[in-house]
Fold each of these.
Amino acid sequence: MKKKIISGLCFLLFIFFICVYIFFFSGKFSVSKIQILGTLHSLTKNEIISMAKIDMTKNIYLLNSNEIKENIEKETYVEKAVVTKKFPREINIFITERTPVASIPIKRGGYVIIDENAKAIKIVQDIKNVKKPILKGIEIKDVKLQDIIQISGSVKANDNSNSETDENIRNLTKFIKQISALNFLDNISYMELKKLDDITLTTKSGILVKFGDINNSEYKCKLLNKILIDLTTKGKNSGTVD
């Protein structure tokens, strides 16, 4: 009787392992669909699928979601990737892109394109490929993609102390973030930022704007937008706004 019970248990265990093997390796649960979600501007869905490096023949239960996420986030234009499995055979990938907002000249040559958080997205050599506006008065020596840009200290206000420079860099990042949120940067070709208490802007139509310091930047940008629209309506494409 005992031997029959043991034999029965062994048989059931054998059947169980056979079922597990079939479940994971039969191909019935291999990935059949990859869904890319999120608003894309710089990347295509096919590019993201290629970055993900998903083995379509592998059982969805055996795929490592973190590995897929890490593969995608190596791309500098990707800020965040969220990977989820939708059983039985679908992978969903939600993408948050970094949005390029401006470019900064690099001391050794070329330009670094940055996002609103001053993180380096891409390095280009030809000025035709930059994302305008170009931020002048800032000196950058070394660039590491996906990291916040390191300014060599040419941005200043009243003195050259390290604490003052660090504060100005934080203010610069905040300034860029504020005005990019207002879609104001789309109208600007150049920004002179050597002194944050005396910023000047040049519009795409050639109008020079004496912006002043970064205080009340949101209010100034909204007011300036109205002024520039008014000047464009009147056909004025040159001059100075103080």
Note: Residues 2-97 form a domain with the Ubiquitin-like (UB roll) fold (CATH 3.10.20.310).
Amino acid sequence: MAKIMLAWEAGSFLGHEALVTASAVMLHHAGHEVVVCPPADVPPNEAAQREGIAWQPVSRAPGHFAPSVPARWRSRATALWAFGMHSSAHTADRFHAWTALLHRERPDVAVLQAAPYAQLAVRHAGVPSLEFGIGFDVPPRVSPFPAFRHGGAFDLNVALALERTMVENVRRVCPVPEGTPLHALVSGDRRLVVSAAELDHYGGHEDSTRHFCGPLPLLDWGSCEVVWKATRPRVLAYVQASAIDPAEFLKAAGQLQGDVVVICADADGLVRTLAEEYGVRLFAPPISVRELLPSADLVICHGGGMIVEALVRGRRCLALPIHHEQAMTASRLAGLRLAGHLGPRQATHYAGAMRRLLADRALVGRLGEFEKRHRHMATRSVESFVAAVASLVAGARPGPEGAHWQRGGSSGGH
């Protein structure tokens, strides 16, 4: 078997960590040697420790200030700009940090989730890579990257100029052939979308490199098991207190007179007091939701991977998007009439939205049909993921076309 490096860089909530850890567990069970390389200061979680998975954080990134993007629209390119690719110095720092880690760990294959600088380094080092994530994490490989929202404000020339600036910043760090587009630098050799094709955020942009394998199995964090009580409705919410009106949200949820489980990383003492007052069970992540999500009557989250996991299980969902990618998800789901969505601070609408979704029998029918179409994904997603990595392992060639350390390359930067 092979040594597999898994990594993520972007994102501050637990969705990225859960996705990478679940993938690491699957590959570990498939017999591979696995090392997870998270952002600095992210300690190994209980699931990784339970499986004996190596945990090697990449060095800390220096702070950076990204100048505003000269456009109303948002795309993968504008996200990369805000993530530091506007700066050749920041790009160089991250590239050299990942290059040093690669030469220390010497993986056969890299499996990357929202990790653009790691992708630059593994491509330069000659390490085969698998890029994976939910829809907006794996955009079509086109120039320029398509817009998330505000497509009417999309200016092709501005978009191309922005991407050329970032390519030039990369060129100052490592060799890049003339005419190379941005997508060729930050995209993996194999690309898996852990979602359903009909939920794709980028409809109309054909790209045969994007394979939709369905959501991966829910991670068993192992730290806190919660089960439903007998009362209905059962409401599962995974939210950030700082992004919503927590008092009104807890009040609205409590008025449903059911069993409400809220997972919230940034709940303070006041939020905990309000949860107790309104009869809501409040937990700090991580907790395992494998026993909760499949039988929830309503799932509320900001619109990341959890909403896809809920939909393929036929669960009603309410999205409260807090950034452009999540808003794109919510808009797509609303267009398909598969979920409700609100602005996260539309507090006066919380209660009404929850009650409408719980009472909508037509929605239950549509979700049932959606679940039937995608039921196979629960098992096939694991098979597809492991097979994609195996194909990269089989194609990895030592010698002249292999990784730098297989041909005596340097371990430092330029």
Note: The longest helix spans residues 377-395.
Amino acid sequence: MSQTDSEANRAIPITDPYEFDLSLLADPQNTYPTFAFLHSAGKQVATRGGIHVVCGYELANQLLRDRKYLSGPIADLYRQSLPPGAARDELAHRINFLDPPDHPRVQRLIMRAFTSRRVGEMRPWVEAQTEACLNGLEEQFASARAPIDIRAEFAHKIPSLVISEMLGVPVEDRDTLTEWTEAVTPLLSWQIDPESLKRGLDAAEMFAAYAADLVDKRRKTPGDDLLTAMLHAEDGEDTLTREELLSLIVTLYSAGHRTTRDLFTNGLFTLLQNPDDYAAIVAEPALVCSAVREFLRFETPTLYVVRIPAAEVVLDGARIAPNTPVVVLLAAANRDPDIFTEPHRFDIRRDEASSLSFAVGPHRCLGAALAQMEAEVMLAAVTRRWPDLALAGDQPRWWSTGPFRGLTHLGVKPS
């Protein structure tokens, strides 16, 4: 049994599934033991705290495709906890939280700009940037002979470069936008300390002002980038409003670098804990694609999404009252023992159902193809460059903020 299998059986602070609360996930060590416990009790549970939790794969798949479950009320809950300002305003227009008729309209328009062709055309550029970054890391290895934090020096940099290039963000501004993105992420947590709240609100104001200025510049001087394409996207008489454009910039920049960074880092950490699998990819590079799919299933960077039914619904015999928050545990569904053989075992050759990490249905992640492409390019380059890469330095620590989960750092070096 692997180390990760053992962790799934660790004791947790609750002994009754009805006691489940999202605060349990604030301690990253509780994440998968909690999900394993919930699975032992069933596929869904109405908690004493007033939320309905779905952990089963089939139920999650069904619910996420059903438009009776809304996203907009979730934004309202977040906005109620925030003071007036840019962060609160932006959430009102964020595509993640839009419902019909606005969501289908905005989705159609953004997909006219965010095409598979555009993603495909980016691949050679991503490969070139990846190789350039690894060249620099190789020089560091040669001179320092010390572990390198591949999360900070590689996994963080490549996705930030990619989304910056796609949106036409000037090189000199990219580090600043990344800092703002990190600061605003905790605003989507149900619990946030005063210092993080202030930092996030301040960053949201600066990010909003920057996005507005960037939009104005693109209107005057169009470029060959995603932002220009969004500015000119049309569907009949429909176009994106200014507020929607500003929100899309924030959303795409945030998700475009954070999700891919944590997808790659979480996955590489797991892979390096299983050196035979790493060696298998080195020997058989075609395994890269299935390995990234297993990264997504086994250590998704997004733990859950929330939906709220406007009217009473029945989910597999369970009645859910109107306005009840329904927490869809994507990460738990990805380890449903009825769907995945030995779900707590990492298997780069796994050929089973697709993970729900990017969700499904109307709110499937717009950047799913981009994130997977980047992770594949990064993993292929790393395994090709360093066939004997190994964990080194301080033990990585997990962090969790709201629905997001990742590593604080990841020290590696060629063994």
Note: DSSP finds 17 helices and twelve strands in the chain.
